[in-house]
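Exercise 7b. Backbone tokens:
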């Protein structure tokens, strides 16, 4: 490990190969020729065993029987991008087969996450005989029991972590390998023509990237194929969203999904109700799609403003109370529940410890947790289960509800659990894939690195470093915000690092961590180091 100018810790992967591509593959556990081929050229048949989730046949038969018998099918989703995309996947399949589809998305503030008795009562009132959950339900023990009591068959499709006891549903299709839409797609592909299931991969790719599941193995295949579909999509809603977002079909990558498309699909569910997000994904009306896409973008801007305000207020609280603790827990009556995950995520990046942000708008407070790699936050929170109304999530992200008056006791318990667990924070970590000599940095290498796309969790965009590199032509740009220089004669840009320009001198040797890119200007392409961090 080495310490950077910005006090970030560099973790350099053990260097086994001089060839950077072989090194990158080694870092990702890809060693044999078969594994390499499967990574760079994944095919559907490579992953058939991953798609065969337990419970598929029983769930499929019940759904097809419902369609045959003209039963209404209520599909109970979630208000985030994965939940909305999961609903859209089921909508396309059920309606294509001639079934009666009715979606149900709970209101984040009024109902909270997951299958509810309110939602089940609604399904019964509408005359449904079958309820299918997507992206939720695996911990809904009481709700599954209630569904049976009121005469509803319940099929659960979910990817969240289960408890020791599973719900007593008619059928359960569960896998933690995929996101919620991925699990739904595994079910759908058993029922519809291959051409339709493949045509849904654009939606599955959006959900997979947004839900931050590992982009290796089967999920890498789904996103790689899904990006092809997305870049040539014929779905009116996606076309409208791409245009409204200022993107161009044919150029969309995982970055655009995670930072531009996904947040817009998420926005309505965070500040109001997510039904319009679903309508956008399902509509065939181009005019309606443009109207909804604009609505989603406006909601996204509103969400950004609310998030910035909450982060500022949270940092003021932290600076007074929690700065040295191994977990940060902040709460306020002014914050809305829908942005708590965003607030917690930003605070984790800054303070490098697990963070829980809680909205206390009503008597029932809603909390979102985001964690570091060394803490399975959902399992820690579950140790406080006696204080909570509900909890669910993943090792790095969780959500829960709690009575407002119990927050103090919850905070104390969580702090004790983290203290006793001996969690040590290293600060922000920069994970270096490979060390390169300047002569290895070529346009061909950039082309080879592009083959690692789609990148994401567990297959990050390759981060490289060069050591003892002489720098020259040091200057700041963008009103002093950004640092530009030449590293061993190569152009380098360090965004947001203008303030450290006086710490390096022309001719000085430094260590540079960077991503490689081609900078196009006036029709000319030049190699450029997009600097992530510097070390003297």
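Sequence design result:
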């Amino acid at each position: 490990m080495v310490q950077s100018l910005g006090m970030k810790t560099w973790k350099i992967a053990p260097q086994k190969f001089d060839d950077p591509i072989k090194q990158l593959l080694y870092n990702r556990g890809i060693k044999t020729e078969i594994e390499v081929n499967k990574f760079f050229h994944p095919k559907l048949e490579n992953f058939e065993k991953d798609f065969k989730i337990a419970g598929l046949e029983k769930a499929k038969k019940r759904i097809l029987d419902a369609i045959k018998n003209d039963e209404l099918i209520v599909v109970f989703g979630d208000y985030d991008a994965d939940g909305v995309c999961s609903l859209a996947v089921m909508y396309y399949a059920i309606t294509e087969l001639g079934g009666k589809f009715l979606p149900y998305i709970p209101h984040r503030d009024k109902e909270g996450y997951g299958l509810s008795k309110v939602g089940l009562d609604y399904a019964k009132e509408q005359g449904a005989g079958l309820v299918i959950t997507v992206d939720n339900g695996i911990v809904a023990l009481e709700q599954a029991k209630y569904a049976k009591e009121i005469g509803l068959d319940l099929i659960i499709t979910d990817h969240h972590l289960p408890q020791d006891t599973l719900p007593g549903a008619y059928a359960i299709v569960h896998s933690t390998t995929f996101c919620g839409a991925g699990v739904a797609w595994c079910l759908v592909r058993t029922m519809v023509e291959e051409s339709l299931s493949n045509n849904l991969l654009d939606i599955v790719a959006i959900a997979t990237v947004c839900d931050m599941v590992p982009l290796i193995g089967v999920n890498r295949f789904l996103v790689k194929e899904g990006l092809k579909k997305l870049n040539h999509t014929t779905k009116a809603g996606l076309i409208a969203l791409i245009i409204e977002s200022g993107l161009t079909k044919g150029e969309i990558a995982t970055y655009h999904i995670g930072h531009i498309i996904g947040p817009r699909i998420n926005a309505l569910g965070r500040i109001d109700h997510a039904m319009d997000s679903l309508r956008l994904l399902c509509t065939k009306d181009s005019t309606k799609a443009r109207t909804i896409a604009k609505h989603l973008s406006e909601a996204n801007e509103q969400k950004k403003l609310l998030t910035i305000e909450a982060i500022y207020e949270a940092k003021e609280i932290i600076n007074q109370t929690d700065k040295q603790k191994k977990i940060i827990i902040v709460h306020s009556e002014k914050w809305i529940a829908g942005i708590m995950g965003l607030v917690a995520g930003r605070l984790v990046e800054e303070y490098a410890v697990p963070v829980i942000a809680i909205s206390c708008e009503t008597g029932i407070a809603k909390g979102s947790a985001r964690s570091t790699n060394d803490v399975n936050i959902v399992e820690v929170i579950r140790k406080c289960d006696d204080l909570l109304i509900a909890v669910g999530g993943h090792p790095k992200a969780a959500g829960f509800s709690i009575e407002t008056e119990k927050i103090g006791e919850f905070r104390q318990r969580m702090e004790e659990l983290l203290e006793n667990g001996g969690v040590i924070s290293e600060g922000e970590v920069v994970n270096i894939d490979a060390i390169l000599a300047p002569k290895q940095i070529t346009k061909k290498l950039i082309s080879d690195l592009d083959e690692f796309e789609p990148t994401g969790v567990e297959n990050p965009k390759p981060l490289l470093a060069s050591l003892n590199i002489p720098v020259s032509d040091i200057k700041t740009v963008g009103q002093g915000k950004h640092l530009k220089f030449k590293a061993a004669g190569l152009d380098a840009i360090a965004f947001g690092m203008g303030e450290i320009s006086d710490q390096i001198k022309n001719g000085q040797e430094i260590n540079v961590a960077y991503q490689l890119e081609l900078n196009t200007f006036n029709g000319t392409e030049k190699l450029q180091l997009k600097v992530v961090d510097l070390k003297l």
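Instructor comment: The chain has three domains: 2-38+429-535, 46-200, 321-420. Residues 321-420 form a domain with the Diaminopimelate Epimerase; Chain A, domain 1 fold (CATH 3.10.310.30).
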